[in-house]
Design brief:
With 79 residues, the chain is mainly alpha-helical. It is built from three helices and no strands. It is elongated and about 65 Å long.
Length: 79
């Protein structure tokens, strides 16, 4: 769970920094938000690949765990 929070926080920080830099260059309103979203997405894709892999493995293992517990409960209910 820690890796999910860390990755999300890093994405937010990258977005805010990007928006701040764009605001300094004069972007305003919807243009600022769209450009910040696009640029921060590309930057985070490059810079946060290791954190994204760690987060996805945590999420995938959580989903597998929930599925197995669900299957066990269905099996017990059927029996």
């Amino acid at each position: 769970m820690r890796s999910v929070i860390l990755y999300s926080a890093a994405r937010i920080v990258i977005f805010l920094v990007t928006a701040g830099v764009l605001a300094l260059f004069g972007a305003r309103g919807v243009l600022l938000l769209l450009l910040a979203l696009l640029i921060s997405g590309v930057v985070s894709f490059v810079l946060l690949s290791r954190q994204r892999d760690a987060m996805s493995s945590v999420v995938a293992s959580g989903v597998r765990s929930k599925k197995s517990r669900f299957k066990e409960s269905v099996t017990k209910e059927d029996a």
